Amino acid sequence: ELAAVKVKANIIGNQVEALKTEGEAKQLAFSASLLASGAGYTGPFNTHINLIFKHVATNIGNAYNPNTGLFTAPVRGVYHFEFYIHGVGSNNPTSAVLLKNGEQICTAWTHQPTSGQKASNGVSLLLDIGDVVFLRMWANSRIYDNDNRHTTFSGHLLFTM
């Protein structure tokens, strides 16, 4: 009888741990800006480049990697992402595209020869565990950021599935 109680206690303990982990996984949010500090341009380059948002304001759940710029889904669910890009007038557009596992999902693009400009976009996506979301700057584009954090990338889990 004592052995049966111990087995039940272990099962219940495992279930409690699983519920704790599931509850923690439901708390996922990140927000980051492009430059770690200072001011400057990224681009233009003659090829597309992945953007790495280095100044992390929040990274609850640590699903965003500021060394690679990749968000990797730790749980299956619906996530919302949004991004804002800033440019200063030039011959080059200001543009970025959000990708899921390398597939283009949505873009933000603006171009004007003088003064400041901003573009933004957002999307809600169903992600499976291990799906990767990131931003890429189009070839011949130029993006500006400074300590005012004009260029940002954010995402959060809406609900698990």
CATH class: Mainly Beta
Strand content: over 45%
Shape-level CATH architecture: Sandwich
First and last CA, distance: 39 Å
Contiguous low-pLDDT stretches (5 residues minimum) are none
Quick one: overall form? Answer: elongated
Q: Output the structural class.
A: mainly beta
Mean pLDDT: 88
The gyration radius over C-alpha positions equals 20 Å
Number of DSSP strands? 13
- Overall tally of domains: 1
CATH topology: Jelly Rolls
Task: List SSEs in N-to-C order.
Answer: HEEEEEEEEEEEEE
Largest sheet features: 6 strands, antiparallel
The count of helical stretches stands at 1
- Percent helix: 10-25%
InterPro entries: C1q_dom, Cerebellin_Synaptic_Org, Tumour_necrosis_fac-like_dom
GO cellular component, one term: extracellular region
Subcellular location: Secreted
Domain C1q: 23-161
